[in-house]
Amino acid sequence: MSGAEQLPEGFVAARRGRTTLIEAARCAGEFAGAGLGSPEGWEQRLLGPAGAAGRGATARVELAGGSVARIKRLRRGGLGASVWRGRFWGARRLLDNLRLPIVAAERGVATAAPLALLLQSDRLGWVRAWLAVGEIEGATDLRSRIAAGRPIGDELDATMRLVRRMHDRGVEHRDLNLGNLLVRGPAGAVEAFVVDLDRGRLHAGPLGFRARRRGLRRMERSYVKACHPGRAADDLRTRIYSSYAAGDLPLARRLERGRGLGRIWIALHRLGWGR
Fold first, then answer.
1. N or C: which end of the chain has fewer CB within 10 A?
2. What is the pTM of this model?
3. What's the mean pLDDT in 94-100?
4. What is the DSSP string of 1-50?
5. What share of the chain is helix, strand, coil (3-state, %, to 5)?
6. 185-223: per-residue pLDDT in tens?
7. Residue 122 and residue 188 in one domain
8. Are 108 and 166 in contact, with CB atoms under 8 Å apart?
């Protein structure tokens, strides 16, 4: 990590060779104490019984100070993911995993608090990274709820209120999908959270219409994909937009006018999904 890449306030860094461990000051030393001072320690946890399988694999870690963290390896998405193999050029984007959630929380967006970031660089300047965030106790993501056959009506409404607040306050999530939206609590008192803001953008004011519609279309596509090969309920697809608009009739009309093209876009994506 170069000197030009400043740490967010409240974090400290310890460097050992080509590995840098960045921790929130309130839990400094606890990750190294838990055996997470090296990439090997993080990978062992992710492969252990507390780890979850898949591209977004995470593991639960209890720290000495009483905090509970969820850890994961940061990977690139998109068509080049298999080429880059989880490597990033420089640390600037990786440090956004610490910065963006802090700013989002300051703007009133409920998200997981960043706790630590481990960076390992090679001689060419490529960096691999692992991230730890505070666990949101009792929360499950909407994709998992659908997979388990659980209802998501009230949870979807709470989630869309959060997404609307996020957009109104200038936070753009570039990968808005059901796996990044967590909920907890009983009907009528559901809390919603958004996670994985690493590719997000911060705007000086509320998001423009196109950015809002782009995020909602990604979320609708995620919902249809989560229900695949079953048929996604049309009322819930519509509810994504109506809950987001929340009585704002001009916005609701603009969103509705573009839904036909949005469905075509989703149908084209669907051709590439596994059967």
1. C
2. 0.88
3. 93
4. --TTSPPPTTEEEEEETTEEEEEEGGGTTHHHHTT-SSHHHHHHHHHSTT
5. 40, 20, 40
6. 988 899 999 999 988 999 999 999 999 999 999 999 999
7. no
8. no
